């Protein structure tokens, strides 16, 4: 080891202590350690390499910084769960909207808007897979018109025809673009025969026409008997020719998905129809 006298002369303005401090600071400017050797005499003996080695030994690897807290703009799961419970309470007992009055419609609409505001905009170009599956309709504001067509003309319930509306589902396949409305119906027949249970499947194809808007095009209606008549084969109802189809029933429609997560979906139709679905 060279002695201090053999080391090259430093500029007059820089002392030994300054050179030592500079060596330590240059090792890791962001984390400087004060280094004290066991024998101060070794500084005077010219063994400056001990200072460098000691500085390296003292430098520790800093732990990675903790992840940033969740953004305040992200909805809290507890709040979403509370708002969904509020919406379910608002539509419960309304028979999917068939028993809703004007006050019920306003209450359900206000509860849905709270979730829509907190959930933010839906982007189906990213979350299309969330549509996949079979969804159960628990509320439609259009059913308050007391027809099975909602805001569009449809068969009346328990008026001209002895029809009782059962469960209503939507079955969506995002790969094949199939969009089926499945309606369970009970058709009254003369006593003493039991009511006929039917399942009508209204097949559609769908396409995205916006980040959250869907357009569906009607293809066919298939009816299958269930219950005591389940052995009967399904049959297809002939489609009304387009020339004879009323303007209000063109066979297609549009709606916007205003809220979507793993188990709840809210949509608003092209005729201001509010629908609420839960995963089946």
Automatic annotation (TrEMBL):
InterPro entries: PAP, PAP/fibrillin_dom. Keywords: Plastid, Transit peptide. Residues 63-72 have a biased composition (Pro residues). Residues 58-77 are annotated as: Disordered. Residues 82-277 form the Plastid lipid-associated protein/fibrillin conserved domain. Belongs to the PAP/fibrillin family. This is Putative plastid-lipid-associated protein 6, chloroplastic. It comes from Morella rubra (Chinese bayberry).
């Amino acid at each position: 080891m060279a002695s201090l006298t053999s080391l090259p002369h430093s500029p007059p303005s820089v002392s030994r202590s300054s050179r030592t401090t500079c060596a330590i600071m240059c090792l890791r400017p962001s984390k400087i350690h004060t280094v004290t050797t066991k024998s101060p005499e070794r500084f005077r003996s010219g063994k400056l390499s001990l200072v460098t080695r000691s500085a390296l030994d003292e430098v520790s690897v800093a732990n990675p910084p903790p992840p940033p807290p969740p953004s305040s703009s992200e909805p809290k799961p507890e709040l979403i769960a509370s708002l969904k419970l509020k919406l379910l309470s608002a539509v419960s007992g309304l028979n999917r909207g068939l028993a809703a009055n004007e006050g019920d419609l306003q209450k359900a609409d206000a509860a849905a808007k709270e979730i829509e505001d907190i959930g933010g905009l839906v982007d189906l170009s990213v979350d299309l897979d969330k549509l996949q599956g079979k969804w159960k309709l628990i509320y439609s504001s259009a059913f308050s018109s007391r027809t099975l067509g909602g805001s569009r003309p449809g068969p009346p319930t328990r008026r001209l025809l002895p029809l009782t509306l059962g469960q209503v589902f939507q079955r969506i396949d995002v790969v094949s673009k199939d969009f089926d409305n499945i309606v369970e119906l009970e058709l009254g027949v003369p006593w003493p025969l039991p009511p006929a249970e039917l399942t009508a499947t209204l097949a559609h194809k769908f396409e995205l026409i916006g980040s959250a808007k869907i357009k569906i095009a009607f293809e066919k209606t298939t009816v299958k008997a269930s219950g005591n008549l389940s052995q009967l084969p399904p049959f297809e109802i002939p489609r009304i020719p387009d020339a004879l189809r009323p303007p209000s029933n063109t066979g297609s429609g549009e709606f916007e998905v205003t809220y979507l997560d793993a188990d709840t979906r809210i949509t608003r139709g092209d005729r201001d129809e509010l629908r609420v679905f839960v995963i089946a």
